[in-house]
Amino acid sequence: MIDFPKPELELSRRQLLGAGSAFTLAFFLPGKAAEAAGASSAVNSWLSIGADDSITLTIGSSDMGQGASAGLAQLLCEDLMVEPARIQLKQGAPTLASPAPLGTAINTVGSGVTRNNYWRMRDAGAIARETLVAAAMARLGDGNRANYQVSNGVILHSPSGQRLSYGQLAADAALLVPPSSAPLVPDSQFKYIGKPCARPDIPLKVDGSAIYGLDVRVPGMVYAVIKHCPSFGGTLAALPATPAGALALVPTKVWAGTGRGAEAVGNTNALAVVGVTTWDAWQAAKRLSPSWTLPASTAALNSSQFMSDAQRLMSSATPYVAGAANPPGTLYTVERSSADANAGLAGAAKLLEASYSLPYVAHACMEVLNCTVDYVAGQRCEIWAPTQSAKSALALVCAITGLSADKVVFHTTYLGGGLGRKAELDFISQALQVALVLQKPVKLMWPREEDFAHDQYRPMALVRVRAGLDANGYISAWSYRNVSPSILGQRGVPLGASGDSQGYEASQALPYAFGARLTEWVSHPSTIPVGFWRSVGASINTFAVESMLDEVAAALGQDPYQFRRARLSDPRWIAVLEAAANAAGWGSAPPAGRARGIAVGTAFNTVVAQVVEVANNNGQPRVTRVWVAVDAYLTVNPGSVEAQIVGGVVHAINATLYGRQTFANGAAQVKNFNASRMIRLGEMPEVKVLIMPAPANADRSRPIGGVGELGVPTFAPALANAWFRLTGARVRSLPFNPNATMGG
Amino acid sequence: MPSYTLNVNGRDHLVNVSSESMPLLWVLRDVIGLTGTKYGCGIEVCGACTVLMNGQPEKSCKLDVSSAAGKPITTIEGLSPDRSHPAQQAWIALQVPQCGYCQSGMLMSVAGAMKAGHHGSEIASEVKNVCVCGTYQRIKQAVAGL
Fold first, then answer.
1. How many helices and strands in chain A, by DSSP H and E?
2. Paired sense of beta strands A222-228 and A235-236, if any
3. Residues with pLDDT less than 50, chain B
4. Residues of B in contact with A626 (CB under 8 A)
5. Which residues on B lie below 8 Å from A204 (Cβ)?
6. Interchain CB distance below 8 Å, B136 and A2
7. What percent of chain A has pLDDT over 90?
8. Reduced 3-state DSSP string for chain B
9. How far apart are the C-alpha atoms of A198 and A217, rounded to whole Å?
10. Which of A112, A402, A597, A659 fits a 20 to 30 Å CA distance from A222?
């Protein structure tokens, strides 16, 4: 048997960092005072400084390549006054405690890790530093703080010239009560914040030693491969015989809290085929032809039906009524100005109308869904999952096994991409169900075809925009209506009068002079499971809004950049728009055979403008250059910001040009990369990222923006706008090239 | 149960497998325990499973173990003992990986192109591996110096 790999990235169980002579600090979520950790409170050991001068930081966010955990370490280092390279990062485990102590797993969603923890990390670093300084003061008998200076974890007592390292003071500091607050390093003296910083996970990702969920190996483990009912909503008709070559066959059902849309809780919608290797299990699964029972409604789950439903609902949806059932097909009012938009449209000198449609899109993370479980009946459960939702997953483990949280050892592994899909728990619930039956360690994997065909997709959408223009070319009325399936509705969240925030985000409260405005959202009845796909509703609404504005500008014969600039009121929007336009040389002619398009938008408190330059490659767009200006208010690691924005642009290129999932009889039609083209190295455009300058002194009352998802929303409209300028053809339906393939 | 001797990273491994058509990828990962080589698509499109066989890049997800037996195979774990391969060095210097899942295959494809005597933009046009994170810009910068 193969040895379990050495835990070189000890994605570890709760660690007792506070033992012996170490100084540990724990910090709780806002509203709670910082507290000194007792000697060994497991989940509270968060920042630990050892007598050997080691500094260990336990961070609970999930690493899917965004570099957020490393960014938090960088923040801590600024005020702790140590070099980031000295920090040993540990993966924090989840806890069911509420509020969750910092360092324990948090759900890594909404581009939120850095922006939600920026000040907390800085405060923690400063408090730790001052506690260590207090220990030095006591040791040296000089209580005058002005006599001490800190440099890279060494405290210098200037009058005596004595130096004490943090490690030398750790044991003393452990006995002190840390102050509730401590002064931060002034922005003008930053050594680390705002500067590129090497990520500690990178070396492990160039030699194969980083352990992703799919790489977990446990002594005695077996391998399971999932095989779902091809159609959403089906349930197993009869349990087939265990196929040749398989060790076991385990039916799995849709667990409470993981059912979406047609996937009704309690339905046995999949079989796990168990083998001695992944390949053996998979081959056995291929030999299996189970019989599934489909509900009558399955026949309506097809792409043409979805579009005709959307078109019908665009004009005939029933308005929301407070207190009523408001089933799918309800029209919600997101935003309505006191001036009547419909009257404004009726009285406009000129009326423009356009409809935009977007398809379902799969996440297609590079690492397929998987989860490993080692369960001993009634005693313990150890689980390894590439999850964005360790906290929710822990609760699921307890629910399925009946064990209390203290009997569960939870490992968040590296994620081979997350993109929102690994925030879901369906694959984890399946692995647990299989482990309960097998009573031995098991790794469950979704083959790529299952990963494509049983996703929780970016919702399809049909958007209609009407713009009324006055005699001077100003927009006097704006009416926006988006019909799309509800992400929150499929999760049982009651929708209020404004509908699903995930569906309408980035369509409302736009800082454009629109005159009278009406923004509406209609819940589409499709039960294809939908979920959070990088930038969520912003990926849909920014395409429609920024395409329509371009259409209005074109109808008026105005420059699309100047047209926007003249109608924007928010200085942040104007600044990023200007920055992107200037960098792209907007006023100058593009190279022969190319054209540029522009778009601006917001998500997660960040404002982004993008200019895309495009060439015509035999009737299809070839993206040649992209300029992106980003205002997230504050930047921790500009290298990570650049990587995330560029990566988001690539993600958006793939989705805008090629991305779509279609359905027939409830079954997904695109099942692998060969039918879902993505660009390759040789097609990569040159992407220039412009990070807006940091403020001289950051104001902690101002919201910090997210970055991870922000490369996506403005790309599609900027490309469509560029393509229009190049060819005169207005693309209102995505993707550009639904029939593209890539071999295989 | 067929058995084969595989030479991986300079070391012989005697493996017992259920079928001579079991792909090298799963033998490496599940039988030998070298998990650096990744499963991505299983249809030779994405390249996450790329290894070197006889010094040339091969996608291991559909490569029968029987046809790999006896031939020198290099996986990401054997590219260098200490991350000193020039491509690994460039990847670290330019902070290329994001999620990192595709990078084993990416690096093996690049290493194969280098073994074939190719440089810079030749490598960039030759390597067809898919990176969903979209790290291509930094990869282009990294291979420019190789």
1. 15, 29
2. unpaired
3. none
4. none
5. 100
6. no
7. 86
8. CCEEEEEECCEEEEEECCCCCCEHHHHHHHHHCCCCCCCCCCCCCCCCCEEEECCEEEEHHHCEHHHHCCCEEECHHHCCCCCCCHHHHHHHHCCCCCCCCCHHHHHHHHHHHHHCCCCHHHHHHHCCCCCCCCCHHHHHHHHHCC
9. 29
10. A402
- List the beta strands (DSSP E) in A575-730: 594-603, 606-617, 620-631, 663-664, 667-668, 686-691
Distance from A416 to chain B by nearest Cα, in Å?
5
Sheet of B11-16, strand order: B11-16, B3-8, B72-74, B50-53, B56-59
CB neighbour list of residue A115: distance below 8 Å, 6 or more residues apart: A604, A605, A632, A703, A704, A705, A706
CA distance B109 to A46: 40
Q: Is A439 left (phi over 0), alpha (psi -120 to 50) or beta?
A: left
Inter-chain contact B83–A217, Cβ cutoff 8 Å?
no
Asked if the model's pLDDT at residue A111 lies above 80, the reply is no
Beta-ladder partners of A116: none
- Compute the distance between CA of residue A711 and CA of residue A703 in angstroms, rounded to an integer: 19
A/B interface, count of CB pairs below 8 Å = 201
3-state secondary structure of A108: coil
Mean pLDDT of A606-632: 97
Interface contact B74, partner A, CB < 8 A: no
pLDDT at site A252: 98
The Cα-based distances of A2 to A219, A285, A441, A576, B83 in angstroms read 7, 25, 14, 54, 24
pLDDT exceeds cutoff 80 at A31: no
Q: What tokens does A28 get?
A: 């709780």
Choose among A202, A212, A650: nearest Cβ to B92: A202
pLDDT digits (tens, 9 = 90+) for A559-618: 999 999 999 999 999 999 999 999 999 999 999 999 999 999 999 999 999 999 999 999
Both tokens of A677, joined, read 């083209």
pLDDT in tens, A298-342: 999 999 999 999 999 999 999 999 999 999 999 999 999 999 999
In the numeric block, the tokens 């409260």 are attached to A509
A24 token code pair? 């540990």
Helices (H), A585-674: 638-657
CA distance B146 to chain A (A): 15
ipTM over cut 0.85: yes
Q: Which runs of E-coded beta strand occur in A359-455?
A: 370-376, 380-385, 408-412, 442-445
CA nearest A197 in B: which residue? Answer: B95
d(CA A524, CA A307): 10
Tokens 């990847």 locate to B91
Which residues 6+ apart lie within 8 Å of A586 measured at CB?
A561, A596, A598, A611
Q: Strand ranges (DSSP E) for A618-701?
A: 620-631, 663-664, 667-668, 686-691
CB contact under 8 Å between B45 and A743, yes or no, is yes
Q: Report residue A182 as tokens.
A: 């401590």
Q: In the numeric block, which tokens belong to residue A606?
A: 């960040």
> What is the spatial order of strands in the sheet that A148-151 belongs to?
A148-151, A154-157, A162-165
Whether the ω angle into residue A99 lies within 30 degrees of 0, i.e. cis, is yes
C-alpha A276/C-alpha A247 separation (Å) is: 7
CB atoms within 10 A of CB A329: 16
Output the 3-class SS for A157-205: ECCCCEEEEHHHHHHHHCCCCCCCCCCCCCHHHCCCCCCCCCCCCCHHH
pLDDT tens profile A199-224: 999 999 999 999 999 999 999 999 99
Backbone φ and ψ for A685, nearest 5 degrees, come out as -75, 165
> For A280, how many CA atoms within 13 A lie in the half-sphere containing its CB?
22
- CB burial of A503-531 (b: ≥16 within 10 Å; e: otherwise) equals bbbbbbebbbebbbbbbbbbbbbbbbbbb
Q: Residue A538: enclosing H or E segment and its boundaries?
A: helix A537-556
Is A738 exposed, middle or buried, given 0-12, 13-18 or 19+ CB atoms closer than 10 A?
middle
Compute the mean pLDDT over every residue in chain A, rounded to the nearest whole number. Answer: 92
